[in-house]
Amino acid sequence: MALSGEQWTISYSGWEAVIASVGGGVRLFSLDGRAYIDGYDDDEIAPGAAGHVLAPWPGRIGDGTYRFGDTEHRLPWNEPATRSAMHGLVGWLRWEAVDVSDSAVSLECALPAQPGYPFPLLLRTRWSVGPGGLRAAHYVSNVGATACPFGLGVHPYLRLPGSPLEEWRLKVPAKTELTTDDRMLPNGVTDARFRDSTVIGDTVLDTTFGDLTRDADRMARVVLTDADDTEQLTVWADESFHWFQVYTSDTLDGDRRRRAVAVEPMSCPPDAMRTGTDLVTLGPGELWSGIWGITPRR
């Protein structure tokens, strides 16, 4: 079997996406053969968590240690340079298909209770393609006997075919962004950049944007546009997602460096397990859900 696991190709009227079982995420997404995410080969380990579902927390937990109720929990560091537990526990697990059609696939992942996160969850994602592009609907149930802390994010890397990242314009519907310390952990808040469509140029971003402004349909939309306005990508997210992480791929290896912009919808910011900011508490049997998607325009 390929390193990224079993694959499902879904399509609709020129749209096509490939969903991989390892990480439960999107590996490829295109319209009429033009790729709009920076994907990877089926027999390749997803670089930089490309396309993965990030749960039960997105971003970093400093020192891998947090308290929930009266109990302190300790997780192993998977980013030793920052002494952090990063991007949750389901990114390298296999997800199973529970419903497949030509234009959609639903995957499930049963996360067992374990040291550091003794809370069993059942996660389901329905990936679909249609007139609006790519859509992901996430459902997470607490299948344990006690309440648990929870957050979710997703990690797509976006590309605009035919032009370099430095020429793209970025618009983020946020009033604030988080500042970080030398371990990339939040340590403050400042006014957000890129509130208006602005050329990225040589700006380096690995930045969490919050206080999102929403359109009349209650969706928040991050927009990437190329220099001559012939290609545009919109990442939209519903009210379950309070934050966007935007990352200009500066720490990726080889030709992936600064080739794509990761726009990551997140229910909570990094280090929320310690700060409690927008952290969800799921009671036994409770369900969390959130929907987001990618819409190209040519």
Automatic annotation (TrEMBL):
This is Aldose 1-epimerase. InterPro entries: Aldose_1/G6P_1-epimerase, Gal_mutarotase_sf_dom, GH-type_carb-bd, YihR-like. Coiled coil: none annotated. GO terms for molecular function: carbohydrate binding; isomerase activity. Pfam families: Aldose_epim. It comes from Stackebrandtia albiflava. GO terms for biological process: carbohydrate metabolic process. It comes from the Bacteria. Signal peptide: none annotated.
